[in-house]
Every structure is written in C-alpha cells, then in structure tokens.
Fold this sequence. Notes:
Strand order of the largest sheet: 7-4-3-8-9-10
Order of helices and strands: EEEHHHHEHEEEHEHEHEH
Largest sheet: 6 strands, parallel
Strand content: 15-25%
Number of helices: 9
Radius of gyration: 17 Å
Number of strands: 10
Distance between the termini: 17 Å
Structural class: alpha/beta
Amino acid sequence: MTELTAQPYPFAFELSHTALMIIDMQRDFVLPGGFGESLGNDVSRLASIVPTLQDILHAWRRAKGLVVHTREAHLPDLSDCPNAKLHRGQPSQKIGDVGAMGRLLIRGEWGSDIIDELKPVEGEIVIDKPGKGAFYNTPLLESLKRHGITHLVITGVTTEVCVQTTMREANDRGFECVLMEDATQSYFEKFWLSTLEMVRAQGAIVGWTATSRDLLSALQSMTP
C-alpha cells in the first residue's frame, strides 16, 4: 500500500486497484464559445488547472495506472436529456443548440470532446454520461469492477457539480476516493472551497482531499 498525504488523514491505496478519473475536461466547459460560457461563466478558471492535470496524467501513465475520462454529452436526438435539465438556468444557448464548436453537449461534436492537452490514449476508459454523476446510466461501475478497482483519484470539473456528484455516487458504491484539490475547479471559487471542506468533513465522510504535489511524489516513488 502507498500512503498519500491527505486531509483529514493519509489516504492509502494500491496502484493496481486505483483509477485516475478526469471528469468532463471538455471544450464545451473549458474553452470560450462552449456551454459553460453560454451560462455567463468565466471559463479561464477551469482552464487554469490544465497544466496540473497534464502533470498528473503523465505521471499516472508512467506508473501504468488505469485512467478514466468522462464527458457530459447527450444523444443527438436528446432522448436522454430530460426537459428539467434542458431548460434549467435559462442559458443563452441550450443543450443541443448550435454553438461555436458544434451542437452544445452532444456526443460526437467537437465541443463535447476532451481538450487536446488531456486527450485519451488507447486503453483508457472514456465514459459518456447523460447526467452529472458518472455512474448514472453508464457502464462505469461494471468497467471499474472488471479492472478490480476499489480506489479512485478524482480530478476535473466542476467541483461542486459533476465532480462532487460522482464522488458521492462512488462513496455509496463502496469506493475509497481522494479529490485532488488543485486539479479540480469551479466557475465560483467559494463553491470549490466549500466542496473540498464538505467531502473531507467528519473524518472523510465522502472522501479525502490531497494536492498534486503529494500525489506526484507518491507516484515517483513507484516508477522504476
């Protein structure tokens, strides 16, 4: 077992039973002209974590750990997108509308894909999800079980929505989870901070939080 410095106390994991999850690092959320910006958000906050995510991803690949990428993306006919979600928030452009990078949050569109800096490679799992959580109506649980995964290192966006929802779903399914503090971000700083506090409260009631520096140090000690 490897012990990672974390809050509220060290997080112990075995690489062979742990997956790195990179949640929703899609052009539609991270780049100008996408769905995130259509809601009036400053997407530069999300883009700021890309270099840290690159460092983690490259180190995880060198250590030969399993990587899972998720994309929040709907079927072209929107049959998997309930009206309650479609019209929520009164955005200037709704899911499925044509934006600067194609139809917003639609599978197969350029904008719904993962940014080039974090592009999946062969052998990595890519999950398209219709909801906030990565376990809802997806094959994620079966994929993790098939690979013998019991622990998750969670990163990505946005901290208080898709990241937190996925972490809580994972917790309910028995996974031990650590959230990388500087490899997750929100359009709102206070939401990012409050989520970190919530998940690690009461003795890691949902999970742990840690920094990329400590994770990279742990991974370096494993890599020949």
